Amino acid sequence: MIEITPDISIDDTEIEERFMRAAGPGGQKVNKTESAVQLRFDARHSPALSNAQFLRLKTLVGRRMTADGVVVITARRFRTQEQNRQDAMGRLIALVRAAAAPPKRRVATKTPKAQKRKRLDNKRRKSAIKKTRGSVTRDD
Predict the structure, then answer these.
(1) Which residues are within 8 A (CB) of 76 and not within 5 positions of it... i.e. 6 or more apart?
(2) Nearest CA-CA partner of 15 in 48, 57, 55, 51
(3) Model's pTM, two decimal places?
(4) pLDDT above 60: residue 140
(5) Domain 2-100 fold
(6) Which tens digit of pLDDT belongs to each residue from 67-86?
(7) Where are the alpha helices (DSSP H) in the chain?
(8) Residue 4 in contact with residue 100, Cβ under 8 Å?
(9) Interstrand relation of 15-20 and 9-10 (parallel, antiparallel or unpaired)
């Protein structure tokens, strides 16, 4: 079990790891070892996440979620497979933890009277300037 928050724990069987060859540093060994990790987590069918948490996760993850609701995280930053596994798992945990926190509710506030008065005064001033504009008449 992977503990995300005190309320959310993901079972190890819900996470699928695939290993593949990674481009980048590694020397002669880079073309022979599969050090990159692709982590797949089926968020839509996970019993650990509520529907609201899934929807928040979907907006956070963006294009990294498939149409079936599977989160795909690819880690290839490090040379070793184990470091890439830890990196991918850490990123998944951070995403789910961020989705678990409900968004703060906005507290509606009133516009101060002085600000309203200032805005209306500016409108009157601009209106008066525009009223004085017009075609010029010749009074000879």
Answers:
(1) 22, 23, 24, 35, 36, 37, 84
(2) 48
(3) 0.63
(4) no
(5) Double Stranded RNA Binding Domain (3.30.160)
(6) 888 888 888 888 777 888 88
(7) 51-61, 81-100, 113-132
(8) yes
(9) unpaired
